[in-house]
């Protein structure tokens, strides 16, 4: 587990040391088990918060705000984010069976109405690994649809988290506060191992309109074969110091340094990704892995941006939100995507990124706890910066440095 | 130079042995110098045809057809097609300076009005290598715009050549005769090193609406790095016996063998190209080059099909014509493109292929001889199968086995 602080953008990664400091009660774990990564979201109650006792009918939390649903307790704490590699799923299982989760298990908790053996899970792995969780932990994975989860996760973040969305261009990120009344429609582009493109028209109104198999798994998979990098992060790091012009065939390489001005292609535009590897007698070992990684990142980012734009155009969507673990706050990725969207749309469409981009599905699965009558997550505004239209969602008061989200819960099914 | 006869589709490649047999007069050479390949088209007069003498005013050709422009001679012969690798441009230069071309140079010929030192050329290399041709051969390349050439080449083929266009699906190719009155609009997708997508609305009415850098150069470049193949054709050959499921992450790999039926993805759909290379400890050497080549071909073909479809959709085009040297009549490439277009368009759009797919630009440059007043190429119908609307183009009577096209010329500037 790593903190990602790249190019001034603090990303939502959970720090291992931070984890050890957790002393509060852990509850409501949700998983998104993808092809490459397992993403986990869980709530950890602050030790010192009031209104959290079983059966407590207090209508005030520590901030002294009156709670509309006074018969239910308010839990104050943080949402935490954690990831594991899917191929190392045993680490995830071990973590969940660890003392931390066992003794303080939350929705595996003190409430009799609450079945501690069921947790929400989404992603293909919720199907694939259902037996493993049952066998090793005695836990049943309650499967939540992948697209439902992604959309619920993004909507939660856009509505509830101040400073969540931002644009990235020319090395600068700019936070964007989206007007809640002007949120829909948008195109969600979730870049995991593969890419899903979802047109979102409302809270629960959406359609998967497109996708591509050229995604994060392609970058990592091809990158691993080409560079022998041991991890996705290492490959990203490597690409940072590379020069794609060594391997990409540019318009200028074909036109002898001149632009192809008639169709608006400058001499530095990429005519053919990896096209320069064709000429000469160079083999893989003759190229610097940095340059290979850079060309690969640029090819894939650019391609996703283009397909996203074409789909946004199809449905007249001006706002394209990019999520998924591929991006990881990496400047060059975001820059290429932003430039791609800007180029193809002639400035009409805008690429937006999210601080918790990798946890959309897991957050959505987490949100689904409120849907099945087991638990209700109630809006609770921060007095200083009240979100405008939080429809029955968790409140987010702050986004701290390691990416965890401060929030409060109200549990409707808490026994009284 | 090779004959490509794959899967029952005879492709327009020029055979070296065939070249040696040429005894007729060579004239009107045109070049398309791309990032990876140089494509050449030239006319070679039959030895035994009449009406070809300098100053001959005969109004009849060998078939006895009356020619409307009786003051001009009719030359009967064949259009021939030849390719060289751009990195081996000296082979092309040597070929052009060879006895064959020197002694029989055509538009470098007996006609005083005809400047033998100027030949039509398109593609970026017409700029890049202009000095080289001047220096080595004393030839000036008369540059013809790349997009103009591509469109002129396709229109010539679609209007004039019987059995040129075909669909390919499930291992079967089906020739399509397009009604000349229903030719436009169509989307031309030319897959060279990079990919250009051109909306064609009429003979000279078109617009380059999109493109992608993930093209033939990407396949060959990445493929060379990954498999150590020595040529594009070798890589294609290799892919034929590969299995992409070894490296691609399928929906079933993520969902444990089940479909993601809610959004219509079957378990065998590719979720992430090269995504399986992420898991396990396999390195490049542990994969069969065949499987790598297959995954690569599928990724790129699929991606081009998708972007092409999205652009066709944008402009309401039902017919998508794929050309360029990437395809080479390769069954799996055409099948993936066809299936991709069919899948994304829900059967609404159709992928069409061309027998002379690799020579569109060169043919278009060749056609441009008629535009500059130097030479006029006059329609001359085959009696048995008259094309309906040949607007001042060469006549094509047949397409022989090695891909050359039988035709007749009429030269308006032939001195009388």
TrEMBL record, chains A, B:
Enzyme Commission numbers on file: 2.7.1.33
Cited Gene3D superfamilies: 3.30.420.40, 6.10.10.60
Keyword Transferase: yes
Location within or outside the cell: Cytoplasm
Catalytic activity: (R)-pantothenate + ATP = (R)-4'-phosphopantothenate + ADP + H(+)
UniProt keyword list: ATP-binding, Coenzyme A biosynthesis, Cytoplasm, Kinase, Nucleotide-binding, Transferase
GO CC entries: cytosol; nucleus
SUPFAM superfamilies, per database record: Actin-like ATPase domain
Top-rank taxon: Eukaryota
Recorded GO MF terms: ATP binding; pantothenate kinase activity
InterPro entries: ATPase_NBD, Type_II_PanK
Metabolic or biological pathway: Cofactor biosynthesis; coenzyme A biosynthesis; CoA from (R)-pantothenate: step 1/5
GO BP terms, alphabetized: coenzyme A biosynthetic process
Family: Belongs to the type II pantothenate kinase family.
Listed NCBIfam families: panK_eukar
UniProt protein name: pantothenate kinase
């Amino acid at each position: 587990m790593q903190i990602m602080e790249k190019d001034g953008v603090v990303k939502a990664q959970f720090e291992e040391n931070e984890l050890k400091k957790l002393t509060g009660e852990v509850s409501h774990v949700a998983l998104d088990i993808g092809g490459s990564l397992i993403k986990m979201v869980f709530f950890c109650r602050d030790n010192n918060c009031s209104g959290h006792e079983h059966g407590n009918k207090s209508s005030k939390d520590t901030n002294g705000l009156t709670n509309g649903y006074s018969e239910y307790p308010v839990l104050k704490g943080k949402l935490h984010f954690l990831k594991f590699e899917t191929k190392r799923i045993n680490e995830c299982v071990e973590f969940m069976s660890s003392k931390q989760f066992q003794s303080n298990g939350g929705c595996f908790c003190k409430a009799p109405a609450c079945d501690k053996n069921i947790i929400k899970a989404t992603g293909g792995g919720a199907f694939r690994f259902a037996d493993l969780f049952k066998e090793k932990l005695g836990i049943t994975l309650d499967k939540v649809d992948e697209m439902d989860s992604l959309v619920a996760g993004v909507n939660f973040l856009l509505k509830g988290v101040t400073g969540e969305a931002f644009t990235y261009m020319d090395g600068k990120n700019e936070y964007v506060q989206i007007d809640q009344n002007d949120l829909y429609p948008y195109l969600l582009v979730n870049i995991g191992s593969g890419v899903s493109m979802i047109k979102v028209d409302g809270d629960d109104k959406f359609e998967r309109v497109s996708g591509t198999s050229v995604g994060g798994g392609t970058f990592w998979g091809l990158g691993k074969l080409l560079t022998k990098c041991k991890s996705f992060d290492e490959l990203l790091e490597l690409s940072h110091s590379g020069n794609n012009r060594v391997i990409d065939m540019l318009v200028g390489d074909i036109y002898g340094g001149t632009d192809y001005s008639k169709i608006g292609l400058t001499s530095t535009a990429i005519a053919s990704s990896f096209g320069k590897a064709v000429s000469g007698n160079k083999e893989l070992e003759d190229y610097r892995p940095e340059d290979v990684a850079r060309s690969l990142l640029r090819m894939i980012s650019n391609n996703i941006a283009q397909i996203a734009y074409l789909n946004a155009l199809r449905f007249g969507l001006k706002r394209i939100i990019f999520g998924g673990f591929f991006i990881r706050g990496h400047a060059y990725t975001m820059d290429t995507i932003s430039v791609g969207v800007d180029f193809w749309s002639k400035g009409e469409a805008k690429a937006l990124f999210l601080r918790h981009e990798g946890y959309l599905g897991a957050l959505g699965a987490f949100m689904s706890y409120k849907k099945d009558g087991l638990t209700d997550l109630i809006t609770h505004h921060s007095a200083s910066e009240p979100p405008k239209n939080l429809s029955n969602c968790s409140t987010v008061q702050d986004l701290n440095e390691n990416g965890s989200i401060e929030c409060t819960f109200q549990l409707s099914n808490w026994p009284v």
